[in-house]
Structures are given as structure tokens and as C-alpha cells.
Specification:
Helices cover 48% and strands 17% of the residues. By secondary structure, the protein is an alpha/beta fold. It binds octanoyl-coenzyme A. The site of octanoyl-coenzyme A has 25 residues, from α2, α3 and β6.
């Protein structure tokens, strides 16, 4: 897939998506959103087992929505921009395989909101995150008020959103916003480890578990548990679950086919 603001590369089942506007610290303008929309809607969900999202260069993952472009929007256009961003980040969040955000440099505003729609967050030790929208007289509206609150709880989310402050990678980790904080030279090995692990696991099982975690956050526990049992039952009609259990009994590695 050829894009102006994105780079897409797939090595076997591991895909790499790079947001590439380094001169603007990879800020999300309409073109990036349009291309993200196309990319996430057209990628081959059967052949990808792990997606890694990163920003071009090491200065920023993404420094937010493009403020220059945003400053020209009317109220109606701003609502549309917000709706578009939210819809695209939901596409990302609902991909049926694990998505890893690799954060080096700044992940701010819409950039952090993009990361919050991913499954695993790996932060380079000098990276900085934050939701500085209030410094512009705005608030996060690519899903940030909702996803951040679900991720870190009311008090930390309110502090971050009301202050607009930047936070270190270590403080992100301390509030549960990072799976790992690593030095630059440790990043590649960690990504490989994740990619290798996820590829060995049953893809249907991961997809269903991801969907349950994602979609049932607002459900009451009894309904969510019912849904869990239903989806678990469905897996038993699939070849992969039989293969996984038989492989264990036969003391061999499972060969999952995603069916
Ligand atoms: N938008 C547009 N351009 C940007 C952005 C951005 N978000 N961030 C950086 N740039 C540009 C700069 O303007 C500069 O361009 P130029 O050289 O042409 O002047 C270039 O990138 C390099 O940036 P700096 O010179 O500022 O680099 P520094 O190292 O001095 O500072 C910072 C780096 C601290 C990251 C700084 O650039 C900064 O504060 N950027 C803005 C961060 C921010 O406020 N992000 C939130 C944006 S709002 C948002 O994301 C809302 C999401 C919801 C939208 C809802 C739709 C309505």
C-alpha cells in the first residue's frame, strides 16, 4: 500500500505502520487520517498477526492533531474532524490481532489518543506523553476523555487532562500506561519477542479475547460473563482449539491456522 504520510511494511505476519510527517512531528492532519482510514480498512486481516505502530524519526511518535490545520476549522468541521478521528481509532482498536504502539519521543494529544487505541504500549525511556489540549483551549476528543479514564481511572485522567502537563515514560508506566519502558537498544528485541509470542498463539482465541475485553467494559458483570462463556463455546467449533488441546496432549507444538 502506497501512501504520502504513512509507510506500510509487512514481513511475513508482522506488519509495521509508520506515521510519517517528521517535519511536523508526525502530527495528524486530514491526509494522515484519510490514509489511516484506507490502510486500516484494506489491510489483509488474514495474513497479519501483529501490527506495530510507530512514528517516523525518533523525535515523536505523534505530537497530536495538526494544530495549524485545526486552527482553521469551523465548529461543524471540528465536530466532523473529531468524529472522523474517533471512527478511525475505533477501527484500529477493533483489529482482530494485537497492535503494539512503539513510542519514541513525544506522544501528545491525538498521538497519545492513537496509542490508547492500541493493545500494548512500549515506551522508549526518554519519551514523553501528555494531553496538552487544554493549553490550546481545547480538550482531547479523539477518544481521550474516555479511553484514558478507562485506562488509568478518574483521578489520574482528570489530572492529566486538566493540567495538560507532559509526563515521563516512567510516570506513564507507574500509572499503568506502559507495558515496558526500555532503552533504545532494547526496543527491537522486545518487539521481536512480542511478535514471536503472539504468532505462536491461537489467532481466533486472541481475537475473541480482545473483543471481549474491548466491548464489554460497560456491561454489567453477569452479562459480560455470559458473553465470555458464549464466545468460549464458539471456539470449540473451530479447528484451532482442537489443534491446541491435542498438541498439548500429544506433547508437540500446535500449528494454528486461524480456522
Ligand atoms: N501540529 C502541527 N505542527 C506541529 C505539531 C502539531 N501538533 N507539533 C509540532 N509541530 C511542528 C512545529 O510547528 C514545528 O514546525 P515548524 O518547524 O514548521 O515551526 C515542528 O513540528 C517541530 O516542532 P517544534 O519546533 O515545536 O519542536 P520542539 O522540540 O521545540 O517542541 C513539542 C516539541 C513540545 C512537541 C512541541 O512541538 C509542541 O508542543 N507541539 C504541540 C503539542 C500539542 O499541543 N499537541 C496537541 C494537539 S491538539 C490535539 O491533538 C487534539 C486531538 C483531538 C482533535 C479533535 C478534533 C477537533
Amino acid at each position: 500500500m502506497d501512501y504520502e504520510t504513512l509507510k506500510w511494511e509487512q514481513r511475513k505476519a508482522v506488519a509495521y505502520l509508520t506515521i510519517s510527517r517528521p517535519k511536523s512531528l508526525n502530527a495528524l492532519n486530514l491526509k494522515v487520517l484519510e490514509e489511516l482510514d484506507h490502510c486500516l480498512s484494506h489491510l489483509d486481516k488474514q495474513s497479519v498477526r501483529v501490527l506495530i505502530i510507530q512514528g517516523a524519526g525518533d523525535k515523536a511518535f505523534v505530537a497530536g492533531a495538526d494544530i495549524k490545520e485545526m486552527s482553521e476549522l469551523t465548529a461543524k468541521e471540528a465536530e466532523e474532524f473529531s468524529n472522523t478521528g474517533q471512527r478511525i481509532f475505533s477501527l484500529l482498536e477493533n483489529l482482530p490481532f494485537p497492535v503494539i504502539a512503539l513510542i519514541q519521543g513525544f506522544a501528545l494529544g491525538g498521538g497519545l489518543e492513537l496509542a490508547l487505541a492500541c493493545d500494548i504500549l512500549i515506551l522508549e525511556e526518554n519519551s514523553k506523553i501528555g494531553l496538552p489540549e487544554v493549553t490550546l483551549g481545547l480538550f482531547p476528543s479523539f477518544g481521550g476523555t474516555q479511553r484514558l479514564t478507562r485506562a488509568v481511572g478518574f483521578y489520574k485522567a482528570k489530572e492529566m487532562i486538566f493540567s495538560g502537563n507532559f509526563y515521563t515514560a516512567q510516570s506513564a508506566y507507574n500509572m499503568g500506561l506502559a507495558n515496558h519502558v526500555l532503552s533504545k537498544d532494547q526496543l527491537e528485541a522486545k518487539l521481536e519477542e512480542y511478535a514471536e509470542t503472539f504468532q505462536k498463539r491461537g489467532p481466533l482465541a486472541i481475537a475473541k479475547a480482545k473483543k471481549l475485553i474491548q466491548n464489554n467494559k460497560g456491561l454489567n458483570l453477569a452479562l459480560a460473563l455470559k458473553e465470555e462463556a458464549k464466545e468460549f463455546g464458539i471456539l470449540f467449533d473451530k479447528e484451532d482449539s482442537r489443534e491446541g488441546m491435542h498438541a498439548f496432549i500429544e506433547k508437540r507444538s500446535p500449528q494454528f491456522k486461524g480456522i
